[in-house]
Amino acid sequence: xxxxxxxxxxxxxxxxxxxxxxxxxxxxxxxxxxxxxxxxxxxxxxxxxxxxxxxxxxxxxxxxxxxxxxxxxxxxxxxxxxxxxxxxxxxxxxxxxxxxxxxxxxxxxxxxxxxxxxxxxxxxxxxxxxxxxxxxxxxxxxxxxxxxxxxxxxxxxxxxxxxxxxxxxxxxxxxxxxxxxxxxxxxxxxxxxxxxxxxxxxxxxxxxxxxxxxxxxxxxxxxxxxxxxxxxxxxxxxxxxxxxxxxxxxxxxxxxxxxxxxx
Length: 263
Fold this sequence. Notes:
263 residues, Rossmann fold, 10 helices, alpha/beta, 5 strands
C-alpha cells in the first residue's frame, strides 16, 4: 500500500509506553495532524490528488470539516509503511499537536501482495500467502509498530493519539463473488489475516498508551462482494482504488470510529 507501485500491485493495493494524555480541549482549540497510509489519505474515494493520492473524502478531512479544529494537516500517503512514518511523517508533529490519527501496518504486512496472490492463484496459494503474512505480523510488525508509536510520542508528547485499524475486506455471506471474484475460501482466509493484523495493532497501541479504534464491526456486512459494499472490489481505473474504502466506507465506517474515539 511503494509510493508508486507496479501496475500489478496497483490493481490490489489495499490491502508504546507512556502515561495517558489529558482529555482534549474543545475542537476549535485542537491542532490535528493525520498520519498513515492509503486508508488515511483517502485512496478509494473520489477526488484523489498528488503523489500521495489524498482525497477530500478521507475520514480525516471529513472529521476536520465537521469539527473545525484550530488547525488540520494530513501527512498520510498512499503506500506508506511504518518506516515512512518515522522517516518523514512525524516531522509534521510538535509539542503543540493535540490530536494525531493514524492507520499503518498493512503495507508492512504485504496485504497488497496477498490480494494479488488470492486474486490470481489457487485457494492453497492464497492460504500460503496469508500464512506468510501472519508470521510477519506476529513476529516482526510488533517491533516496527512500537518504534513508530515511540517516534510519534516523542514528537507530539501532549497529543491524544488514535490508532485506527483496518476492516475485513470481504463479505462472506455468499458463496460467489461475481465473475472473476475470489472464492469463499480465499475471502475467509484474507479476512482471518485482517483479524490477526487488527489484534497486533490493538495490542501495540494499548502498550503505547494510545487509543485503538477498531473498524471491523462497523464494516461488517459492507465488505467487497456484498450487497452494499463500503469497500471497492477490483477496479480497473484507477487501479489503486481496488480493495480500499469507497466514499461510504470513509463516511460511515472510519469517520464514526474516529469521532467515537476522540469524543
